[in-house]
Design brief:
The complex is a heterodimer of chains A (509) and B (497). Chain A has 509 residues and is mainly α. Chain A is 70% helix and 4% strand. In chain B, strands 1-2 form a two-stranded antiparallel sheet. Classes of the chains: A mainly alpha (509), B mainly alpha (497). The interface between A and B is medium-sized, with 34 and 35 residues.
Chain lengths: 509, 497
């Protein structure tokens, strides 16, 4: 019952904070968010499971499964559990939420209790997404994320917040429906061989080749069509070029803590779902079309990096860099090797921490200088040394400097994708070139903003940031380094869950 | 149980409503000018709560599993009767509690509550009617008080005009309906639903029967605000006091569907009239056309409104279209599943739609205004009410975290399973469209900056209580859908095997 407790505590905290007066809401929310954080870390330390949540012969941690609605062939159940892929993501969610709440104290100055209540509500939904194992339940949580996100961007965002909020809502909601149709078509295609929407049952039936034809549509076509529908649905969330246009708008308009959640956790919903649905349930479609998917991945990496290079707004630079980093995750997944998929999962966590760190430091810089334009500032290092140091460290993490989490993740991905399928050498090489561009735009931006003569075109006093603004940055950078120095903390667990997915004769490492 | 209750107690919810109505009339005749609103509203609330309790108790205890026939079989109490009694009683309770504040300054307090109770009596009787005569009488018993309720704001031109319009269309529909009954009686020689069924199986007069059935269908379309008898609904809901609009659009509509489900499936059996060898009167086809037209028209009209109450009125027409799927997808081989989907949706709808209209009542109480723009920034002033309203709207749109998602999902899944995937597709597209206009309200409340200078000086306890209760139930119906579904399938089993 630990997962239920985690979600329930978070929801109850959300309600409590919503009822609290504005003045104390921030501190109360942070204090309450420590409960799920400590809870999930405790779960992490006592984690005992093996195998992949969707495959037979696995043992899940903290699993509960009971019938919820029984309606003939449509029985739904409350089925939650964690394996090596979801456990790190659950821990990431709780840690990042607590830090994001701490980072909200300075920028959020109106309707605080509503803001913090919604943030905790968001956290509860995310925990549900990463732990649900019944499709219906999973979809409930998946859509539940949208509601707080819509309001969070729409109320507390920048000048074009309404446009950004609506765009995000419409894009991702339509994507969910496309995905829903694709998945339900698969369930109907399975006919009587599954009696529920239980994800493990469906995954095993699909992998065992029990998919039949649906009306005039043959099993083979149905598979590909469902794969495309689900891929398109999740690709918007990731986001994969060309479905990425909602993201920069949402990021730029969202207040800092919401950007942290968006880049740090929400984007991972997309890749997590791709891994669970597309790549676990229909592995042969993924492998047969690997080069096509790899094109999406590589284009995301290169094009996202190029776009970042062209931006003059510090936050936009970080926003587009997410498109690029998530491209690596897709590349790792499509490799369909132990290192590729493991690296992709590792990259989800690593990018969650690093992008959270980057958005947070941009937020701190903005809080002090009240500008985000690269051209408006230079030499910040002399005025706010700690913030800038962390920013630089985070940027190095992004570039994949050894002994940082990003390096480990990208190394695994490249090792895994090199030679994994026909032509993958070229795709990997092209994606590796992305690193150069990333290093380029980050170094270029840092050189112009952080170093050199101090000068900021604003009326505000520029000085060191408050303790509660810098503390989460330091925590994050320590985590990034910890994961880089000892990837085994997560990687063994991830590997254990990814291993059963990969066929024994798979290519690559 | 040791004590064997007499069989007439099975009609408990109906009797409780009737007695409460009479009690209120007694209070009124003792002291016609009473200002003791608490006594009147309290009596009504107590009565409807008792009806909620009774119907829930009977449902759980399984009273209706063996159908109980009363009064020469003209009335039957089965799981379906009790299921719908629970819906009506819940809505009535919410409406009565909310009316305590809303009707504060109006005259005719006792009459108001008595009329609500009488209408509720008629509705619960509709769900139990097993004879076309009882169907007609109970339908009138629920309609006549409704006309007066819509027009109860005597000094408000809109209210009076709406009442008149509602009354005229109601009278016309009743005439059509009763003529249809007489034709059916002429063909089959009986008014009892099972005997009608036996009669239609043997008759050669399919032409007359067909006209009769279509006329009866017209009567149901009126009561459920479905096309082509829908156009009274936006006018009436807009002019009526908001709690009355909540009552009509939730409970009265559900009552129309309850009686339509029973009459069509029991008296005009699908295998004889629609799919069998002698198929002549294909009312399922008619229901398909009505469903598609009703939901499309309702949703498109709702999307073009500029006033929130009118938008809700048209959206409630759209929801009538969704529930019509339950009739339209019959004869596809999963009748029980489809019907249960419709019933479950009506139950969830009872809470979410009532809640939405009660929020309108709250807005009217504060004189916020009618248009979307008038709602701008309301969340900064009344966050709790706005959270509740957001729950209702997203639930009506069928977004996952709320009960409305479950019931819509099961309704559409039932249609797909019966082979009517195109009906489900039309429903899903309409549902997606509905998100547009529902989220306009959410956007206005939460995201837009306040433009109007509304004055929120008081937070009425009654309205808030009803609102919060409806919101909590709407949310709880998602995890609790299992038992709703259990009762709904049992209720559907009473009609189709």
């Amino acid at each position: 019952m630990w997962i239920e407790a985690l979600i329930a505590v978070t929801l109850a905290s959300a309600a409590a904070v919503f009822l609290a007066p504005n003045k104390v809401a921030g501190k109360l929310a942070f204090a309450l968010s420590l409960l799920p954080m400590v809870g999930s870390l405790w779960m992490y330390s006592t984690y005992e499971a093996s195998g992949n949540a969707l495959l037979a012969g696995s043992e899940l941690a903290f699993e509960t499964n009971f019938n919820w609605v029984v309606a003939g062939p449509y029985s739904l159940s409350w089925h939650v559990g964690l394996d090596g892929i979801s456990m790190p993501l659950v821990a990431l969610t709780t840690v990042l939420t607590s830090l994001a709440l701490l980072a909200s104290w300075t920028p959020i100055d109106e309707r605080q209790s509503q803001f913090y209540g919604l943030m905790l509500f968001l956290e509860a939904s995310l925990l549900g997404v990463f732990s649900a194992l019944d499709f219906f339940l999973w979809f409930v949580f998946w859509e539940m994320v949208l509601v707080p996100m819509y309001v969070l961007i729409g109320v507390w965002g920048g000048p074009r917040r309404k446009y950004a909020a609506i765009k995000m809502f419409v894009y991702t909601n339509i994507a969910s429906l496309v995905m829903f149709i694709g998945f339900i078509a698969l369930v109907f295609g399975l006919g009587d061989s599954v009696t529920s929407l239980d994800m493990p049952a469906i995954a095993q039936a699909l992998r065992a080749g029990e998919l039949g034809s649906l009306g005039p549509v043959s099993a083979g076509t149905l598979k590909v069509a469902a794969f495309v529908a689900m891929f398109a649905g999740f690709a918007v969330k990731v986001p994969v070029v060309p479905f990425h246009t909602w993201l920069p708008d949402a990021h730029v308009e969202a207040p800092t803590p919401v950007s942290i959640m968006l880049a740090g956790v929400l984007l991972k919903m997309g890749t997590y779902a791709l891994l669970r649905f597309n790549f676990t349930m229909l592995p042969e479609v993924a492998q047969n079309n690997a080069p096509i998917i790899a094109v999406f991945a590589v284009v995301s990496v290169i094009y996202g990096a190029m776009l970042a290079l062209a931006q003059s707004d510090l936050k936009r630079i970080v926003a587009y860099s997410s498109v690029s980093s998530m491209g690596y995750v897709i590349l790792g997944l499509v490799a369909y090797t132990l290192y590729g998929m493991g690296g992709a999962t590792f990259q989800m966590v690593a990018h969650g921490l690093i992008s959270g760190l980057m958005f947070m430091s941009v937020g701190v810089i903005y809080n002090t200088t009240h500008t985000r334009m690269v051209s408006d500032m230079s030499g910040l290092a002399s005025k706010m040394p700690i913030t800038v140091a962390v920013f630089v460290a985070g940027a190095f993490g992004y570039m994949g400097l050894p002994l940082m989490a990003g390096f480990a993740a990208e190394l695994f991905i490249f090792l895994g994708s090199f030679g994994a399928f026909a032509g993958s050498v070229w795709f990997t090489a092209a994606a590796m070139f992305g690193i150069v561009v990333v290093a380029g735009y980050l170094l270029f931006a840092m050189q112009r903003t952080l170093f050199g003569e101090f000068e900021v075109e604003t009326d505000y006093e520029v000085g060191p940031a408050a303790f509660h603004d810098v503390a989460p940055l330091v925590v994050l950078i320590l985590l990034v380094i910890l994961l880089g120095v000892d990837p085994g903390i997560f990687y063994d667990m991830i590997q254990n869950a990814v291993d059963p997915l990969v066929p024994a004769t798979g290519g690559g490492a | 149980m040791a004590v064997e209750l007499p069989t007439w107690t099975a009609l408990g919810p109906t009797l409780v409503f009737a007695v409460t109505a009479l009690l209120l009339l007694v209070f009124d005749s003792i002291d016609p000018d009473t200002t003791n609103r608490g006594l009147l509203a309290g009596t009504a609330a107590f009565g409807s709560l008792a009806a909620v309790g009774l119907s829930a108790w009977y449902l759980v205890a399984g009273t209706g599993e063996e159908p109980i026939s009363l009064y020469q079989n003209t009335i039957v109490v089965d799981t379906m009767t009790l299921f719908f009694a629970l819906v009506f009683a819940s809505v009535t309770t919410l409406v009565v509690v909310a009316s305590y504040d809303y009707m504060r300054d109006h005259s005719y307090q006792a009459e108001y509550y008595a009329l609500v109770m009488l209408a509720a009596t008629g509705m619960t009787l509709m769900a139990a009617a097993n004879s076309l005569a009882v169907v007609f009488v109970s339908l009138e018993l629920s309609s006549l008080p409704s006309f007066a309720l819509v027009a109860i704001l005597k000094k408000n031109r809109g209210s009076v005009e709406a009442g008149l319009k509602y009354f005229l269309i109601g009278a016309l529909s009743s005439a059509i309906f009763v003529y249809g009954i007489s034709l059916v009686y002429g063909v089959t020689g009986s008014l009892l639903l099972p005997e009608v069924a036996a009669g239609v199986a043997e008759t050669d007069l399919t032409g007359v029967l067909g006209i009769g059935v279509m006329m009866i269908l017209g009567g149901f379309a009126y009561k459920t605000a479905s096309v082509p008898f829908h156009f009274w609904a936006p006018e009436a809901y807009e002019g009526a006091p908001a709690p009355v609009a909540a009552f009509l659009s939730s409970a009265s509509k559900a009552a129309g569907f309850a009686v339509a489900f029973r009459v069509l499936t029991v008296a005009f059996p699908i295998e004889d009239l629609v799919t069998g060898a002698a198929a002549g009167v294909d009312w399922v086809l008619a229901a398909q056309i009505l469903a598609v037209v009703t939901m499309t028209l309702g949703n498109f009209a709702a999307a073009t409104q500029s006033e929130v109450k009118r938008m809700l009125a048209y959206s409630s027409i759209g929801h009538a279209g969704y529930v019509l799927i339950a009739l339209a997808a019959l004869s596809g081989g999963s009748d029980q599943f489809v019907l249960a989907g419709g019933m479950a949706h009506l139950l969830v709808y009872g809470f979410m739609n009532t809640g939405a209209f009660l929020f309108i009542a709250l807005a009217e109480y504060w004189s916020v205004g009618r248009t979307f723009e008038d709602y701008n920034g309301l969340a900064t002033r009344a966050p709790f009410a706005c959270v509740a309203m957001t729950v209702f709207l997203f639930s009506l749109a069928g977004l996952p975290p709320f009960g409305g998602f479950m019931s819509k999902y099961f309704l559409f899944a039932g249609a797909v399973r019966a082979g009517f995937w195109w009906l489900a597709a039309v429903g899903a597209i309409n549902s997606a469209l509905s998100l547009y206009y529902y989220s306009r309200v959410v956007k206005a409340m939460w995201i837009e900056d306040a433009s109007g200078d509304f004055d929120i000086e008081s937070k009425p306890v009654g309205l808030y209580t009803a609102l919060v209760a409806a919101a909590v139930v709407t949310v709880l119906l998602l995890p609790g859908f299992g038992s709703v579904w259990q009762f709904a399938t049992d209720a559907a089993a009473a009609l189709v095997a």
